[in-house]
Amino acid sequence: MSSPILSTRNLTHVYSAGTPFEKMAIRDISLDFYPSEFVGLIGHTGSGKSTFVQHLNGLLKPTSGAVLFNGEALSSSKKVLRQSRFQVGLVFQYPEYQLFEETVFQDIAFGPKNMKLSGDEVAERVREAARFVGVPEEIFEKSPLELSGGQKRRVAIAGVIAMRPQVLALDEPTAGLDPEGRESILRNLLDYHDSTGAAVLLITHDMEEIARIASRLVVFREGEVAFDGAPKEVFRHGRELVDMGLELPGAAHIALRLRELGAALPEGIYTLEALADAICGVQGHSLGQREGALECGGTPPVSARTALPAPSEREPKWRGGCGSC
Questions:
Q1: In 3D, which of 59, 84, 58, 89 has the Cα closest to residue 71?
Q2: Rounded distance between C-alpha atoms, residue 66 and residue 74, angstroms
Q3: What domains sit in the chain, N to C, each tagged with a CATH number?
Q4: Does the structure show a pLDDT above 70 at 78?
Q5: How far apart are CA 181 and CA 74, in angstroms?
């Protein structure tokens, strides 16, 4: 495995230390992030996700512990800190509220200009970033204030991407958007990740969303890391995640309820495909002779129906089979 591009070692942050309002936000967090990873950072509100991310390019200074970029502590020199500001890009929640330049082009160009790049290089990066997020060049000379909410969000993300960071960290980038807007932003981020090989760290509350796209999940609980691993490994802890106040992906929730009702389904299911395969497997081994047993493309058994949404509320329907039945 390659060396981590970004690491934290025993990272701790206390707000208002030494006052009656003292609050431990994150405690003793040690994590490594690698090039080309797509990592979901999840957890209940107040679990420490946003505080953690704001340390990754030195925006917040830790109370104790360290952040390392390419093996060097951000606190080791001003040069390393400055480099991290450009190479670890942060996109805050509702970033469109931070647009301030007169035109879309100037707003996207703000970061590259601060990198002291030539005019031609700045223009190239602006056009490249705009393509990644779906901002047409026809609106480059418009004021950001004239744009829709979704367009403003894209422009704000493009302003960070234009610096070509090796790590892109985003805090709820789809918050407040309609379903089509959310899907479009996520597709843009996946395209950027696949095209550049940058590490992407995505904070979200939407477990359904992140389960589809992340290769690794880090779950925060009360300022500490509760779980860290591939989605299948993390969703083995379905009941614990629910007890933490997190909403499981639909397939994981159904699988959990079926297991609690006695079905012999494996742990770690979080996609509809895996759920269909598992139910077909159970049906073939232990439910096949029972009246009303699930047949692929048919009707779930009574015990399964108690855990499934009404047919009108779920998509896709129980149809099409698992490919082996």
A1: 84
A2: 8
A3: 6-230 (3.40.50.300), 250-313 (no CATH)
A4: yes
A5: 35
State the Cα–Cα distance between residues 316 and 325, nearest whole angstrom: 18
Distance CA 13, CA 48 (A): 9
Using one digit for the tens of pLDDT, what is the confidence trace for 7-50?
A: 999 999 999 999 999 999 999 999 999 999 999 999 999 999 99
Task: With H, G, I as helix, E, B as strand and everything else as coil, classify residue 201.
Answer: strand
In whole angstroms, give the CA distance from residue 277 to residue 28.
40
| Bridge partner residues of 68 (DSSP) | 7, 73
Average pLDDT score over residue span 199-206: 93
Question: Which residues make Cβ contacts (< 8 Å) with residue 16, sequence separation at least 6?
Answer: 22, 23
Query: What is the pLDDT at residue 284?
Result: 61
Residue 220 burial (C-beta neighbours within 10 Å; 0-12, 13-18, 19+): buried
Under a CB-based contact definition with an 8 Å cutoff, are residues 255 and 269 in contact? yes
- CA atoms of 74 and 69, how far apart (whole Å): 7
pLDDT, one tens digit per residue, over 131-187 is: 999 999 999 999 999 998 889 999 999 999 999 999 999 999 988 888 888 899 999
User: pTM of this prediction?
Assistant: 0.84
Strand partners, 26: 13
As a dihedral over the C-alpha atoms of residue 204, residue 208, residue 211, residue 217, rounded to 10 degrees, the angle is: 40
CB within 8 Å of 270: residues ≥ 6 apart: 211, 231, 232, 235, 248, 249, 251, 252, 255
Q: Beta strands 216-221 and 199-203: pairing type? A: unpaired
